[in-house]
Design a protein that fits this description.
283 residues
Amino acid sequence: MKKGYQNLVALELTAGLKSYMMEVRQVTSDNVEALFAFSTFISVFNTYQANTRVQQLALSKRMNAAELASPQTVASAAVRSALQWLRTLRGAQVILVPGWSTLQSGPLRPVITRESWSAAIPISNEHRADEGRLKILESMWSSPRRQYQDYFGTLRQAWQELCRSFALVWKLVDEAPPGSHASGPTFDWTAVFHFAVQCSLEFAALLEEQCVEAWILMGHYALLGAEVEGLWWFDGSAESCLATAALVIGTNNWEWIAYPATKIGLDLERLRSFALDRPRIAP
């Protein structure tokens, strides 16, 4: 039944994509709401598809023998799936930026407006340790042991955005009423996508190039996904994101993602046989 509905959704989205691609070239007050609504459905579907693909590639107990023969094949396929999801979310800016004022004054205002996302975001004592772990990530490029590279600026910008996204999610989690929505998300889960939507093209390019530092950052981003519960299309996304990072950065760098792996419950040893062989980045 679930597979049948999935195929039906794929057919409906494919049918609508032709019109969508034509309309999105020129965002107007007349089409912006329809474009944003359709892009949201695309994002949901691509998130589910990317998660399913990584589960099949790296986390399934019944692996394809041909895929196991080449770690690079597995890692590259997982990266493609992740980037399809990331670029879909980031692509919403094409609609949101020119159509912001129209969306804010229309029926979709509750979807895009977040008055509770204040600029001053306090961090509770409970999250101080996690904040410290995020700060350590800067040492990947900010270190006398490493010669400066042009892409370090992109990494630093992405790291700063990631820290801000963590602070936002922590704030919303802390403010959620105790025990609220026990069977689902206990906070505004859309905050988890803030980092992905704000992702720069330069950072996305680093991910596509399988940059170790960029994927270590994504391995920590997976922790935000683990905060979300009760969304069938998002279930397992944290594990899939972290698994992709583990494949790309290689076993020599797994110490960088040891904490996310423990927190999420991902057994890295399951991935050892098809993780890439990458140079070690000393902490």
